[in-house]
From TrEMBL:
Record field: catalytic activity: Endonucleolytic cleavage of RNA, removing 5'-extranucleotides from tRNA precursor
Gene name, Swiss-Prot/TrEMBL: rnpA
Family as reported in the entry's similarity comment: Belongs to the RnpA family.
Descriptive protein name: Ribonuclease P protein component
Subunit details: Consists of a catalytic RNA component (M1 or rnpB) and a protein subunit.
Molecular function terms from GO: ribonuclease P activity
Function: RNaseP catalyzes the removal of the 5'-leader sequence from pre-tRNA to produce the mature 5'-terminus. It can also cleave other RNA substrates such as 4.5S RNA. The protein component plays an auxiliary but essential role in vivo by binding to the 5'-leader sequence and broadening the substrate specificity of the ribozyme.
Alphabetized UniProt keyword annotations: Endonuclease, Hydrolase, Nuclease, RNA-binding, tRNA processing
Presence of keyword tRNA processing: yes
EC number from the UniProt entry: 3.1.26.5
Enzyme class: hydrolase
Length: 129
């Protein structure tokens, strides 16, 4: 029996400017409302199978408190579902960079965010195979 760690480490967060530029220049995207998911497969070996970036528009949410609340919702829902995505990536030997961009103009419930993230992770799993 293996123990799953439901954490989101620093290595799993996308922060290198070169990787971010490559993601938005060459990445493919789809919508799992209220999220737009941009992803690309990376050739180089990484310590984690998927790195993520979360973006919430300052134009839609003027207050940082609300933007941070949305980011927390997205991070939490991804953190709980990332194992579904990591297993096929590890078996295929592929590495992903993913950006989750929030599209809605108002806060959505956590249940709706969970459904959107579940759909996004499922679609990513289908697209990488």
């Amino acid at each position: 029996m293996t123990i799953r760690r439901y954490t989101l480490s620093k290595a799993e967060r996308l922060s290198r400017k070169r990787d971010i530029d490559l993601l938005f220049a060459e990445g493919q995207s789809f919508i799992a409302y209220p999220l737009r998911v941009v992803y690309t497969v990376i050739d180089e070996q990484r310590s984690v199978p998927a790195s993520i970036l979360i973006s919430v528009s300052k134009k839609k949410f003027k207050r940082a408190v609300k933007r941070n609340a949305v980011k927390r919702q997205i991070r939490e829902s991804y953190r709980l579902r990332k194992s579904v995505l990591h297993e096929p990536l590890l078996t295929a030997g592929k590495f992903l960079t993913i950006a989750f961009i929030y599209l809605e103009k108002e806060l959505v419930s956590y249940e709706n965010m969970e459904k959107a993230m579940e759909k996004a992770v499922r679609m990513l799993g289908e697209k990488i195979q």
